[in-house]
From TrEMBL:
The lineage of its organism: Bacteria, Bacillati, Actinomycetota, Actinomycetes, Micromonosporales. Keywords: Membrane, Transmembrane, Transmembrane helix. InterPro entries: DUF6311. The chain crosses the membrane at residues 27-45, 94-114, 120-139, 146-164, 195-212, 248-268, 321-338, 350-369, 389-415, 427-444. It comes from Micromonospora parastrephiae. The keyword Cell division does not apply. This is DUF2079 domain-containing protein. Residues 80-385 form the DUF6311 domain.
Length: 608
């Protein structure tokens, strides 16, 4: 960005043929970006209300619930950042979860029109598409002259292995279009005379980014801080940085004030509100990037389809690097070629990009290094940084996501340089073309894996549930709702988005207090009833029920104030199939014989 050609006095207006070529290139990039976005998500487009992402259906159910709840909260005057609809009676602090509030509000009309699952798919597809366009716009209008170079860089970043991996249901991490906008507005703070306006614009953008992807905003801020510091300290840029510093600082101050005002309540909830926690329950060693993963191939790619994928990530949604050995070699060659032909100013930019990639690569290794799945005793810098507030809530493996835009920018710079001064020898041109093909073609994304999910029971879709739950009453499916049993939130999302009214549920998929050492955990601390139903659903074995068990279960029912227990004929298990028959026999042993209502088994729980 600092070496942007648009910041200097521009050339004379382009001739019509050049304008036509540029517009044609813009259109081609738009069409390719849209085609790739639809291609990656094509499995869901077959029927978004029936199909779910195979490897991460629990997160998909969570984001669908967040869309339904957020729209309902805004249209009914409820708090969109704290709710008692789940985790009865304590509620859930959504400010410390991934609440995607902006998406929930903006897309509320669409959610009411077509339902939460279809809205989820629209946002996921638009995220990938918009990320490609935003990076293409930043590159083509501010960093390179060649539209081809900008297209290569923008499309690579948007459909890099990390982005495709997080397309497995992460609406927050796939919102990569926020990053180039933040970069653009940050460097606009250098302009003299506009620091107030530019600071306000950036402050609003920061608030929007926080409300969609707070962890991504944090990583972007860290990355930009590292880049600006390294760039400004380079001898070739010190004078320029010193001259721009007063405007830059004033603009940042305005940004901080505007963002703090807009985010005052969410930040209070996040750091001091009820149901908060410090850190997360995720093991930073498990959720760190394997050193070998940088040279490995991702599963959802052409290379992965032919069997070259690996299992070096903790799960298929966290393949945050996985660039392949070919792209790593090409990146190094590009960097060296650019360095050799760069002037002092461009070398400052390359130096900052290289430092940024190296720092975030090492940090992504987590507290201790892992190589090809084997943990070593070699301590890493994150072992110290991971103890800091806010940093302790981040997953170190995701820091590798910062490396992909660096690679994309280097690829764009290289193509731009090759277009401006093509090699004299045809063999050299062919070598470059072959290098790009060998590095990038294996990484072409393939569609996300999907499968049919268990249908929402007619008992819910028809609204029959309202006859068995008092206003603001508590209904629970069995097994009780947690991340691996998302039915409760799926049913609740349907009721909210179809204006059926509210029912509350115990538990749910959320981050809350209760983990070791005061850290967070997924879902509530298990109680007897939830543990018994989980055991039956997992193993197919009915647990032994004693008088003591009955007393503990009755205590749980009073704690949750449950009125109605429901078992669907088909229960969705996010990680394994659920034995519905064992769950029904366990519930019968605890609550007595059920009644059949529509297509569910139902137990009425008398008041305490």
């Amino acid at each position: 960005m600092p070496s942007s050609p648009s910041l200097a006095t521009g050339p004379a207006p382009a001739s019509p043929p050049r304008v036509v070529r540029d517009r044609r290139a813009d259109l081609i990039v738009v069409l390719v970006a849209l085609a790739l976005a639809v291609w990656v998500t094509s499995g869901l487009w077959r029927d978004p209300n029936v199909r779910t992402i195979t490897v991460n259906s629990s997160d998909q159910a969570l984001f669908e619930w967040l869309l339904a709840f957020g729209g309902h909260a805004v249209t009914h005057g409820e708090n969109p950042l704290f709710t008692y609809l789940i985790n009865v009676p304590d509620g859930v602090n959504l400010a410390v979860n991934t609440s995607i509030t902006v998406y929930a509000v903006v897309f509320a009309p669409l959610t009411y029109l077509i339902g939460a699952p279809a809205t989820f798919l629209v946002i996921l597809t638009l995220n990938l598409f918009a990320t490609a366009l935003a990076w293409y716009w930043l590159l083509s209008r501010h960093l390179v002259r060649s539209r081809l170079a900008a297209g290569v860089g923008g499309l690579f970043i948007a459909y890099s292995p990390g982005m495709v991996s997080h397309a497995n249901a992460h609406l927050n991490w796939t919102a990569g279009w926020l990053v180039p906008l933040l970069i653009w507005r940050l460097f606009a703070l250098r302009r003299p005379g506009h620091w107030l306006r530019d600071g306000v614009i950036l402050g609003v953008l920061v608030a929007v980014a926080f409300s969609i992807a707070a962890e991504g905003l944090f990583f972007t801020a860290l990355a930009l801080g590292v880049f600006v510091a390294v760039w400004a300290l380079h001898p070739a840029r010190r004078a320029e940085a010193r001259a721009a510093l007063p405007n830059f600082v004033r603009g940042l101050a305005v940004t901080a004030v505007v963002a703090a005002v807009l985010l005052s309540y969410p930040l209070w909830l996040h750091f001091a509100g009820p149901q908060r926690f410090h850190g997360t329950g995720f093991d930073p060693v498990i959720h760190s990037e394997d050193i070998a993963a940088f040279a490995a191939f991702p599963r959802r790619s052409l290379a992965g389809e032919v069997g070259l994928g690996t299992s070096l990530a903790p799960n298929p949604t966290e393949e945050n690097s996985f660039f392949g050995i070919g792209l790593l070699v090409l990146t190094v060659v590009c960097f060296v070629a650019l360095w050799r032909r760069a002037d002092a100013g461009r070398r400052a930019t390359l130096w900052a990009l290289g430092a940024l990639a190296l720092i975030f690569t090492v940090l992504s290794f987590g507290p201790v290094a892992k190589v090809d799945g084997r943990r070593t005793d070699l301590p890493m810098p994150f072992d110290l940084l991971g103890q800091l507030p806010v940093v302790n809530a981040a997953l170190p493996a995701r820091l590798a996501l910062v490396v992909a835009p660096v690679i994309g920018v280097l690829l764009a710079y290289t193509v731009d340089q090759l277009r401006a001064a093509p090699p004299r020898h045809r063999s050299t041109q062919l070598a470059w073309a072959l290098g790009f093909a060998v590095a990038l073609l294996p990484l072409l994304p393939t569609p996300l894996l999907t499968h049919e999910r268990e249908p929402i029971p007619q008992f819910i879709t028809s609204g029959t549930w309202r006859q068995y739950v008092s206003p603001d009453g508590v209904l629970t499916p069995v097994p009780l709702p947690v991340d691996i049993y998302p039915d409760g939130q799926r049913w609740q999302a349907y009721a909210l988005s179809h204006r059926q009214g509210e029912f509350r549920i115990p538990g749910g998929f959320f981050l809350g207090p209760g983990g070791p050492d005061g850290r967070g955990r997924i879902g509530p601390v298990p109680r007897t009833l939830s543990a018994l139903m989980d055991q039956a659903g997992r193993t197919g074995l009915v647990p032994i029920v004693t008088d003591g068990t009955i007393r503990e279960v009755r205590s749980d029912l009073r704690h949750w104030r449950i009125e109605t227990v429901v078992l669907a004929d088909e229960v969705h298990g996010a990680k394994f199939p659920v034995d519905e028959d064992a769950v029904r026999r366990t519930a019968t042993a605890l609550f007595g014989e059920p009644q059949r209502v529509d297509d569910v088994w139902l137990w009425r729980i008398p008041p305490a």
